[in-house]
Amino acid sequence: MNNHSSVPEVQDTSSTSALIVGSVALFTDMLVVGLAVPVLPLLPSVLDAGPAATGILFASYAIAMVLATFVAGRTVDRYGPKTPLLIGLIGLAIATLLFAMGGPYFLLFVARFAQGVAGGMSWVASLSLIAATTPMEKRGQAMGIALSTITLGVLIGPIVAGFMVEHFNTSAPFLLAAGVAFADGLLRIILVKGTPRVTDDTGGPLSVLRVSGSTSIATTILVGAAVLASLEPVLPVHLNTSALNIGLLFALASLAGIVANPAVGYYVGKVSSRLLTASGLLFITIALFIVGFANELWQTSVGMIFLGLSSAFLLAPATTLIADQGYKAKPSTLGGSFALYNLAYASGLAIGPLLTGLGVQQLGFSMALVVAAVVLALLGGFSLSRLPSGVAANS
């Protein structure tokens, strides 16, 4: 093997540079995801395709992301993180340019799928890069910082897209995204000088999944991701309001989650995680019922706030718990924990749009959200009994 050659390469890329590159890569990916929210459902070819096809379009990102994750893992193992980081960059550039062109549904589908491939490559490579350059005792904090940029991208994307559509056209947000991707690419090329590999964290997501309670935690993460994603393909068409208003509504949900996250995180370890998660499932039901039957924009806004709260109450405890499961795995692994987190999160991003897209086409908007609320609450509820009640003392 080339163990000797890999040691200086790890030292070439500092932990600070790795954290910057990884965080910016995750932010850029989710920024483009957020930019699509108030734009894609309102494009003529997507409107003509119907709610079910819109749900499939939004879900295709996550499906491609899951598929790419497995390929990315092998690529990182063989070549290190830099190669999949550059592959992800190329995929993102192709996706943004295709989105900017608009055009027929199938072309948008190709763009969304390419975006998912780019996301899968970038997520795995970014977290692997951080893991390879950060000591184990500081790795959890670094991963947490990187993952927080996901929420930031989702927060900013819809607002920026709504504003640019109002003042320019539907291509403008994606041309901006192409510029951000270019800057992101320069960081990946300049700051990632070597191709480091993780040598002290050999366990994968399956080793974490075998630990008792991990399936329940992964299910909770899936539900937390599915909630907001479930409204992305259907709410813009239902409200028939401006792209800016749509962007602000989704940003409001993300902002509520950002504000609630530190508060919920403070109580993780002090209050039963089952209680926090049960509260999140209750907020899901409240949120989707309010949005489903809202007659005024302010009522929808209230529902979106509850939606953001539900995300915080589900994902903040689950993120801590999934890391704790990694310490219990054999061999111990933090990288495997976050790989499982990514897979569960991406699965939620796929299930949410499919559930509501098909539901709206068959049942109408209000009843589709009722069904989604029941399905997601039951899915999360079934996992509660086996969810770890708290965080164990670990190393």
Automatic annotation (TrEMBL):
Keywords: Membrane, Transmembrane, Transmembrane helix, Transport. PROSITE patterns: MFS (PS50850). InterPro entries: MFS (IPR011701), MFS_dom (IPR020846), MFS_trans_sf (IPR036259), MFS_Vesicular_Transporter (IPR050930), Tet-R_TetA/multi-R_MdtG-like (IPR001958). Residues 18-391 form the Major facilitator superfamily (MFS) profile domain. CDD domains: MFS_MdtG_SLC18_like (cd17325). It is found in: Cell membrane. The keyword Methyltransferase does not apply. The chain crosses the membrane at residues 18-40, 52-73, 85-107, 113-132, 144-165, 171-191, 211-231, 243-268, 275-294, 300-322, 334-356, 362-382. The keyword Protease does not apply. It is a multi-pass membrane protein. This is MFS transporter. It comes from Actinomyces lilanjuaniae.
